[in-house]
Model the fold of this input.
Amino acid sequence: MKVWLAGVGVWGRGLLSYAQLCQRVAGVAAPDEEFMPPKPEAIPARERRRAGLMINLAVTAAHQACEHAGADKQQIPSVFVSSMGDTDITDYMCRKLAQPEKLLSPTKFHNSVHNAPSGYWSISAQNRAPSTFIGGAGYSFGAGLLEAASQAHDGGEPVLLVAYDIANRPPFASVAPVTESFACALVLVPDGHPVPVPGAMAVQLDISLQPQPAAAVLPRAPALAALAAANPAAAGLVLLEQAAQLDQGGTAEARVELPAAAHLGLNIALNGP
Done:
């Protein structure tokens, strides 16, 4: 199955754009700074007051990727992926429901559903296209990539993939030690379909399945490796590192393996333009 990677969006500690991703891949060290929560102006003010970190991460990366690819934000179908959803809200709700007076914030309850980031994306982009939501713990990015690539390949139109997770606090941290907040987004274009705009990325992904789990591999760049080890959504950075190298005129071909389930792996050959 062949698709083209036409646009990328990222947000994490020291990694706030595709341009910064390329800098990290080239060996430029990330500044020693705290994580900066995104503030997506694309979300209308009323909804922005209700949005939490997970929503803001997902929406920011989604807009970046579409702008990079020149994709039509109003028309592009999407796949949203998170390993555990918004654990801040889950923690809040569990604590409230354990108290004698079980009073929940309507806003937090509204945002507790797994597809909340997709809903805010659709509002911010005026997008009414179909959207799919996936949760698969540590396999989430690979599972989401397989779903998005399959939709692009079979549907014959670009698809937006958005992967995101936030740092967990106890007690979630004891079972899912996510220590960094991160989001990335990819615009995938079917083989034979024109890349949305001149100047967009044009890295081909030739994806095949292998009936055994792929070993999780970290990127070579230290800053990217640190994020990939700290956040399930950042598992995609090993793929984006190779894609950025090709996009910046590197070697003509690369290969990446990603886990997509307990007994399924993705074998991905990357080819430059």
